Amino acid sequence: MLKISELRLHDVINVIDGKRLGMIRDIDIDVETGRVKSIILPGNTRFFNFLTKNEEVVVPWEKIVKIGVDVILVELSSTSQLQLK
């Protein structure tokens, strides 16, 4: 069993290009079913976050390939599959 607090300490890596996408910022849960819908990662920051809105990247749960001891592997064939929130 894995706790959400532990899940947030994992790095998220794209298996297609090996790029590190960051650590989980938040998790989107469907309250009716109790299932995780997506993980939310920090997006690109501009000008050191000074007077800019933080973007978030939403990765659908279906794109998660494997959750390991210290990393989460996702399969995103292109950055166009990333949803900005």
Automatic annotation (TrEMBL):
Q: Which Gene3D superfamilies does this entry report, sorted A to Z?
A: PRC-barrel domain
Q: Which PANTHER family match?
A: SPORULATION PROTEIN YLMC-RELATED (PTHR40061:SF1)
* SUPFAM superfamilies cross-referenced by the UniProt entry: PRC-barrel domain
Q: Where is the PRC-barrel domain?
A: 3-76
Q: Which gene encodes it?
A: ylmC
Residues forming coiled coils:
none
Give the highest taxon in the source lineage: Bacteria
Q: Which InterPro entries match?
A: PRC-brl_dom, PRC_barrel-like_sf, Spore_YlmC/YmxH
Q: What is this protein called?
A: PRC-barrel domain-containing protein
